[in-house]
From TrEMBL:
It comes from Panicum virgatum. Residues 97-352 form the Tubby C-terminal domain. Belongs to the TUB family. This is Tubby-like F-box protein. Residues 1-28 are annotated as: Disordered. InterPro entries: Tubby-like_C, Tubby_C, Tubby_C_CS. It comes from the Eukaryota.
Length: 357
């Protein structure tokens, strides 16, 4: 067969074309400098007006994010104006997903499960309607790793791998499916050591903090205790978590500074009561859960035996998760939990638990 001639290289741009390219680049840089040269007071006022102009909910809230994407100075102004979820009750930036939720009213979310591809999508709920489309927050996919099961958590529903720029962390189970470890891609505090050699990777542009090395840092554990009553009794859950401090400033949360370790937060499932008339175990989910399931749970703070004053509030539900349809679940969380931690704990309820069923 005759050989095909190699394609000729494209001719270099003419002098005039090169000049146009240089001029276009210079014009773009000049335009960016023009935005950045706004007076700090004027810049803050612009962002404050955008924040107050009906941007309470998504998709209108994307205007605030657009302001933060103009340049570094606009980002700093947006950070100074927009308050964290603990204060505002709003999720704005990706970093909000790893910040504590509000204290008074829970952040209402829901999870959609796809059994065909073993994926779970987390959405911020706008209404209590089952037809609510919500705002997409995170996604997870279940993988089998030998005797273990892993749930990879990502900002991108189409790219669910540890090598992704959108990788946020993972949940890993033991063989029995009763003990789980939660790993964060971001160090929880200064000096934290990664438990994976992947720490040499760098966050991409969509990372929570682009300057921080990406690894797997253990930030929590979830365990399900053996159920002596078999299928008649509810599961018993215990969680130990490194929760972000509510006092940590919003500015530091978006930079490379991290808090000191403050000790783990311990949670346990709220004990249900036996309903004689219905002949089943019951919990009050205040209308947020409509289908009976062994997966349903409510977590409260666990009392500290070393605290004789009993300052821990054991009645306030910090995380509740429950079924509303075949593949639809609600997830409501509040301080000190973040959306990422609440999602990871909720994922642990899926799958077979050999010692609990």
């Amino acid at each position: 067969m005759p050989r095909q001639a190699a394609p000729l290289p494209a001719p270099p741009p003419e002098r005039g074309e090169m000049a146009e390219v240089v001029e276009a680049d210079a014009e773009a840089e000049d335009q960016e400098e023009r935005w950045a040269r706004l007076l700090p007071e004027l810049l803050s006022d612009v962002v404050r007006r955008v924040e107050a102009s009906g941007c309470e909910r998504w998709p209108a809230r994307k205007d605030v994010v657009s302001c933060a994407c103009v340049c570094r100075r606009w980002r700093e102004a947006a950070v100074a104006v927009v308050r964290p979820p603990a204060e505002s009750g709003k999720i704005t930036f990706p970093s909000s997903l790893k910040q504590p939720g509000p204290r008074e009213l829970p952040m209402q979310c829901f999870i959609k499960r796809n059994k065909k591809n073993s994926t779970f999508l987390l959405y911020l709920g706008f209404t209590n309607s089952p037809m609510d489309k919500g705002k997409f927050l995170m996604a997870a996919r279940r993988f089998r790793r030998g005797p273990h099961t892993e749930y990879i958590i990502s900002l991108d529903a189409e790219d669910l791998s540890q090598g992704s720029n959108a990788y946020m962390g993972k949940l890993r189970s033991d063989f029995w499916g009763t003990n789980f470890k939660i790993y964060d891609s971001k160090p929880p505090y200064d000096g934290a050591k990664a438990s994976s050699s992947r720490s040499s990777r760098r966050f991409g542009s969509r990372r929570i903090s682009p300057q921080v090395s990406a690894g797997n840092y253990e930030v929590g554990q979830v365990s399900y205790k053996y159920n002596l009553l078999k299928s008649r009794g509810p599961r018993r859950m215990y969680c130990s978590l490194e929760c972000p401090s509510a006092q940590e400033t919003w500015e530091n949360s978006l930079k490379t500074k991290f808090r000191r370790p403050i000790g783990p937060t311990t949670l346990r499932n709220k004990a249900p009561r036996w309903h004689e008339h219905l002949q089943c175990w019951c919990l009050n989910f205040h209308g947020r859960v409509t289908v009976a399931s062994v997966k349903n749970f409510q977590l409260v703070a666990s009392a500290d035996p070393s605290d004789p004053a009993g300052t821990v509030d054991e009645e306030t539900v910090l995380l509740q998760f429950g079924k509303v349809d075949d593949d639809m679940f609600t997830m409501d969380y509040r301080q000190p939990l973040s959306a990422f931690q609440a999602f990871a704990i909720s994922l642990s309820s899926f799958g077979t638990k050999l010692a609990c069923e």
